[in-house]
């Protein structure tokens, strides 16, 4: 339960950080340490060097850009959870953040850490896939952008290179004007500290929230812990778009989701069960998103199931 | 761990850190892998910091770092350089007691029998402190959420939740 020895580096700039990554062998990045710390305590990882990112204040921010929001990789879950700006623009992100573990973990854990870990059960990976998020990666030689969709390749395996740092995430807000948008992040979880059994991240935009039957113009559906990567289900989105949300449409979308997912069975939830939960939670999350789009109220934090 | 042929064991690098612990400045030479929990217990003698699971599950090692709770077993002492740490021992100072009287949270845990073996208690007390500082009148659901990072194997939690309600009431007055 004690980690193996390592050398601790505490750069103060991103510049310094990417140079360290270029120079050192056998390095891990130390962000909130809520996952790496566990792995190292159990000596499942024994890196020679830890590059501590906690001195990089330049990576802790939430800012509005011309066409979206940009969030620094070292922004804590607690900050995302409480960001009024995010609650107004991309409420899925605070709702995903507030359901991660308990307060002391959220005080430390970071957006970049979660994306770097790339656990398919993680909350941000599914949310970013649903929202067409873009990751901003940087090495000593290069800065590049990768869509969340391209970034997650296989189980905990990503497009991030050894010498790269996740600097920030951007989420486009153009598709989702707040007055006609609803989003929801819905988890099935046994206890605060466990990984969710399955989560459903959904977002919808309607044509006119005050119409009798507002038509769905845009639908996003992504599932967490339902495949080896966070899984977007475009076929289920397609059957819903162009119509008001109906029982029949929801049932069809749920069935498509259940067919699309390929979850691993777990001790408390076998594969069949998780497939069924994925469909059902996609459905419930969509219902909530649709209600929120029509209500046009602050959408954050009132999921009931 | 054994010494290898190159003598690395003796040459292991340490860093000097200065940490304000319960209001007192402490300077020490530490190995980077030393957990904050072990630093507080072994270097500072603060045994109120409980080491339970040592991998971030149980919450018994919860302390405040710069006013926010952290699991001190998932933090290295070198990361606390320049920080202010408060442990459960600091609470009685906060209560300005010279006669051993307890902080209202501790008093409420005592009064409502919110502990049996007591191993988890200091972690729960620190989590409660942060919760009540941010939300002086929490609902039962908010209390459960606020204590979600802490595990108790004796009480079944009900008395702990009652203690938090009682402490909240006391501290609002």
UniProtKB/TrEMBL annotation, chain A:
Protein's UniProt keywords contain Acetylation: no
Sorted UniProt keywords: FAD, Flavoprotein, Oxidoreductase
Domain named FAD-binding PCMH-type: residues: 1-176
One annotated GO molecular function: oxidoreductase activity
InterPro entries, per the entry: CO_DH_flav_C, CO_DH_flav_C_dom_sf, Diverse_Substr_Oxidored, FAD-bd_PCMH, FAD-bd_PCMH-like_sf, FAD-bd_PCMH_sub1, FAD-bd_PCMH_sub2, Mopterin_DH_FAD-bd
UniProt cross-references to Pfam families, sorted A to Z: CO_deh_flav_C, FAD_binding_5
Record-given protein name: Carbon-monoxide dehydrogenase medium subunit
From TrEMBL, chain B:
Keywords tagged on the record: 2Fe-2S, Iron, Iron-sulfur, Metal-binding, Oxidoreductase
SUPFAM superfamilies listed in its UniProt record: 2Fe-2S ferredoxin-like (SSF54292), CO dehydrogenase ISP C-domain like (SSF47741)
Pfam families cross-referenced by the UniProt entry: Fer2, Fer2_2
A GO term for molecular function: oxidoreductase activity
Record domain 2Fe-2S ferredoxin-type: where: 15-91
Domain of life: Archaea
KW Metal-binding (keyword) present: yes
InterPro entries according to UniProt: 2Fe-2S-bd, 2Fe-2S-bd_dom_sf, 2Fe-2S_ferredoxin-like_sf, 2Fe-2S_ferredoxin-type, 2Fe2S_fd_BS, Beta-grasp_dom_sf, Diverse_Oxidoreductases
The UniProt record lists the keyword Iron-sulfur: yes
Protein name per UniProt: Carbon-monoxide dehydrogenase small subunit
Annotated organism of origin: Natronobacterium haloterrestre
């Amino acid at each position: 339960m004690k980690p193996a020895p390592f050398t601790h580096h505490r750069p103060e700039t991103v510049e310094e950080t990417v140079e360290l990554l270029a120079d050192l062998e056998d390095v891990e990045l130390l962000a909130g340490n809520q996952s790496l710390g566990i792995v190292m305590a159990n000596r499942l990882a024994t890196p020679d060097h830890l590059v501590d990112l906690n001195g990089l204040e330049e990576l802790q921010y939430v800012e509005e850009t011309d066409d979206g929001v940009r969030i620094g990789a070292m922004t804590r879950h607690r900050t995302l959870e409480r960001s009024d700006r995010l609650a107004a623009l991309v409420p899925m992100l605070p709702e995903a953040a507030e359901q991660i573990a308990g307060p002391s973990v959220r005080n430390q854990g970071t957006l970049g850490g979660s994306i770097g870990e790339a656990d398919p059960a993680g909350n941000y990976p599914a949310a970013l896939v649903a929202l067409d998020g873009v990751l901003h990666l940087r090495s000593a030689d290069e800065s590049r952008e990768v869509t969340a969709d391209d970034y997650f390749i296989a189980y905990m395996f990503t497009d991030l290179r050894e010498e790269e740092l996740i600097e920030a995430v951007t989420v486009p807000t153009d598709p989702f004007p707040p007055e006609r948008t609803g989003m929801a992040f819905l988890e099935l979880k046994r206890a605060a500290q466990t990984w969710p059994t399955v989560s459903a991240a959904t977002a919808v935009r309607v044509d006119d929230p005050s119409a009798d039957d507002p038509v769905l113009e845009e639908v996003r559906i992504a599932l967490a812990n339902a495949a080896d990567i966070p899984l977007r289900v475009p076929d289920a989105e397609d059957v819903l778009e162009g119509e008001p949300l109906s029982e029949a449409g929801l049932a069809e979308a749920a069935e498509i989701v259940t067919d699309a997912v390929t979850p691993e069975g777990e001790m408390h939830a076998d594969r069949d069960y998780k497939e069924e939960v994925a469909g059902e939670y996609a459905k419930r999350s969509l219902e909530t998103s649709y209600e929120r789009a029509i209500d046009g109220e602050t959408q954050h934090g009132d999921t009931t199931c | 761990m054994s010494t290898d042929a190159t003598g690395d064991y003796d040459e292991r690098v340490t860093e000097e850190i200065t940490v304000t612990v319960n209001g007192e400045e402490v300077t020490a030479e530490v190995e980077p892998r030393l957990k904050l929990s072990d630093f507080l217990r072994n270097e500072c003698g603060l045994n109120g910091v409980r080491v339970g699971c040592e991998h971030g599950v149980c919450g018994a090692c919860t302390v405040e770092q710069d006013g926010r709770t952290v699991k001190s077993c998932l933090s290295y002492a070198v990361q606390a350089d320049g920080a202010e740490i408060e442990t459960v021992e600091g609470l009685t100072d906060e209560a300005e007691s010279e006669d051993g009287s307890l902080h209202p949270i501790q008093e409420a845990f005592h009064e409502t029998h919110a502990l049996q073996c007591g191993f988890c208690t200091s972690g729960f007390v620190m989590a409660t402190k942060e919760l009540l500082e941010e939300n002086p009148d929490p609902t039962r659901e908010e209390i459960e959420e606020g204590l979600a990072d802490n595990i108790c194997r004796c009480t079944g939690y009900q008395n702990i939740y009652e203690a938090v309600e009682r402490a909240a009431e006391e501290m609002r007055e």
